[in-house]
Amino acid sequence: MSNVGFRIFKNIKRPAMELVEAFKNIPTPNIADNMNRFFCVDAGIKPMNTSKMLGTAFTVRSRTADNLLFHKALDMAQPGDIIVVDVQGDLTNSLAGEIMISYAMKRGLAGLLIDGAIRDLGSVRELKFPVFARGANPRGPYKDGPGEINVPIACGGVIVNPGDIIVGDEDGVVVINPIDAPEILAKSKETYVKEKEILKAIEDGSLDRAWVDRLLQEKGCEIID
User: Fold this and answer.
1) At residue 12, what are phi and psi to the nearest 5 degrees?
2) How far apart are CA 85 and CA 61, in angstroms?
3) Is 221 a domain residue?
4) Is 90 a member of any domain?
């Protein structure tokens, strides 16, 4: 009999590392624009330092104020994984601090994405290791369970599946299904190049803004003197 709500799935399917690494220099806005502005984690989840995040999702569903399954995930996750924790946005207790984050860093993980709180923020800000969370709270967690590892979870309003590609920078976090990743990557690269061309046109004064009036006319906007 399956113990729903208190289970650990050991094996997940990860995308090829070459595919993940190909997103390294692509800004999250370019990626989001090519997913029709969906799959962006809620803006309440912010970077806790200046490190950018890129890796594959290793998911944890945790009861609020508890990090027992989070600890187990730290031992199970592989280098290149990002532990993504669903604690329903609760900020009452922190789920991780400097010690857990340092351990994740030592194990070669690619980051932590927590829909909840951390602590030891002063130390975390100095680490060269990406941590995204909803906030900070000095009140620590309990270790009782239940919870689940490597199941579909919700993080900041986005469904995250084990093995999804996670990209995070100063603008926020996007979640990419590996099946869609090659096409999204190609389109995002095109967007990146196009935006560089627009910035150059702004600089040299050749930017064409006629599209604004054209679109207003198409949508029936009345312009009055």
Assistant:
1) -130, 160
2) 6
3) no
4) yes
Other CB atoms within 10 A of residue 217 CB? 10
**Cβ-based neighbour number of residue 126 at 10 Å:** 10
- What's the average model confidence in pLDDT over 112-132? 97
User: At residue 39, what is the residue type?
Assistant: F
pTM > 0.90: yes or no:
yes
Q: SS3 for 169?
A: strand
**Which residue type is seen at 225?**
D
Residue 115 lies in a domain: yes
Task: Assign residue 156 a region (left: φ > 0; alpha: ψ between -120 and 50; beta: otherwise).
Answer: left
Tell me the residue range of the domain where 169 lies.
6-186
The CATH number linked to 169 is: 3.50.30.40
The pair phi, psi for residue 118, each rounded to 5°, is: -120, 180
**What mean pLDDT is reported for the chain?**
97
Neighbours of 40 (CB within 10 A): 19
Three-state secondary structure call for residue 178: coil
Indicate the number of domains in the chain. 1
Which residue type sits at 144? D
Identify the pLDDT of residue 1. Answer: 59
Q: What is the DSSP string of 46-90?
A: EESSS--EEEEEEEEEE-TTB-HHHHHHHHHPPTTEEEEEE-TT-
Considering the domain boundaries, does residue 1 fall inside one? no
Determine the average pLDDT of the residues in 63-74: 97
Q: Which helix (H) or strand (E) holds 189?
A: helix 181-204
Count Cα atoms within 13 angstroms, Cβ side, for 132.
31
